[in-house]
Amino acid sequence: MNEVSPPKKPTRIQRERTEEILSAALEVFSRYGYRGATINQVAEEAGMSTPSLLYYFKDKEVLYKELLHRTITLWLGPLQMLSDMDQPVDEICAYVARKLEMSRKFPRESRLFAGEILQGIPRAHDEIFNPLAAIFHSKVALIERWMDEGRLARRDPHHLLFSIWASTQHYADFESQIDVLSPEKMPTLYADAEAFLIPMYRKLLTPEETTP
Predict the structure, then answer these.
(1) Which pLDDT belongs to residue 127?
(2) Burial, 129: exposed, middle or buried (Cβ in 10 Å; 0-12, 13-18, 19+)?
(3) CB–CB of 130/148 below 8 Å?
């Protein structure tokens, strides 16, 4: 009986080339979206021929889904870190800061994810929403418990998380708009955003002192 040989591990050069292709694809897809991007554009961005690229990824959809998988894994990280700490207000403010840092360091990933959401997740609905929904609802339950315990002001936890996403990811998704409207803000954009957002959320979430 013939034994099936295990698949060969990619060489260092193959791993490096794969990462170069994914970086090029991220640039193209975040700029043009799935529909507007072509595999030829990705190959050109990666500095290789289209047949060479197709050796690594058989078509545009396979390449795009790999990017989405990596992006959702990256995007879930800050939310997963939101944990049951003694000071919930500090914990949520730290989450806001982490989300801003994600937008600063990974603007292309943010725009790729936003573009897919706008299209209704036609290619990876379950792969994206199943893990996101599980983590989202667990954090909503945690925030509700903090509120029941009087450690957070009573706010809608769903809209709280939505507002954090909107206010932090805006800086990546609409960077070109900010650059046109407020070019003088660009050099210190994220530091200024954190200085604005953290006190706002702290005030919103700090319970009012009750008179005995």
Answers:
(1) 66
(2) middle
(3) no
